[in-house]
Amino acid sequence: MLCSAQIVRYNAQASGETMKQASGTLLPALIAGFVAVLVGYTSSAAIIFQAAAAAGADAQQIGGWLSMLGLAMGVSSLGLSWYYRTPILTAWSTPGAALLVTSLPGTSLPEAVGVFIFASGLMLLCGVTGLFARLMRVIPPAICAAMLAGILLRFGLDAFGALQGNLPLAGTMCLTYLLARRLLPRYAIVLTLLAGLAVAAWQGAIAPIPLQGAIAPPAFIAPQFSLSALLGIGVPFFIVTMASQNAPGLPRSAPPAIRCPPRR
């Protein structure tokens, strides 16, 4: 009886310690997830707009496009993370969207949809067959990191170019980021955003606009498969996405404790 009481007491203490550990790691995990989504949207949503406009989509279609992107990324992130018990966040391809901005003009919207389906099929094929995993074992991580650095170099240089146009705003944001990166690295992006909003409000650059709670309805667009568009846009889009985003992101964001097989 005494032994049973000690076991129950031990289990209760272990359970309490586990709950404390979980509560202690929940807030940083929520902040990390929020920052990841915030950075993804604020840094590349404009490129998605430009890519959709280059395909000939109107304002309503672009709104529906972003709505479906957010829904698909949210559902897939929740489902994959729950199934694999691993933090997995799906997102659009920023380098691929940048490529589409220059490649889609002159292409009809149905042909652009066909290009997306074709490139997505190639990516799915690489994941199912394990081809991507084999390529990752051959390609050195340094090369993948260098490709990612080449993509991000332009964004870093544009920050200094913004200093000429609006020194108080860009300077405050750059200084806040450098200080926060040194003192509070986990909150650097959020603090930089808040500092930028504060300076923009002080300058009177933020004007109140009426907000509507309506959700942009999705519009069905029948795909059209053109051989010239598939080869001229679909194949480069697939290569850029796999080589410039998926491959560099895998070794950079997969600690050994939560590593997920590349084919997944």
From TrEMBL:
Gene: ydcO_2
This protein's record includes keyword Lyase: no
Keywords: Membrane, Transmembrane, Transmembrane helix
Name of the protein described by the UniProt record: Inner membrane protein ydcO
One Pfam family hit: BenE
NCBIfam families found in the cross-reference section: benE
Source organism (scientific name): Serratia rubidaea (Serratia marinorubra)
Signal sequence region: none
Transmembrane segments: 29-53, 65-84, 112-132, 139-157, 163-180, 187-209, 221-243
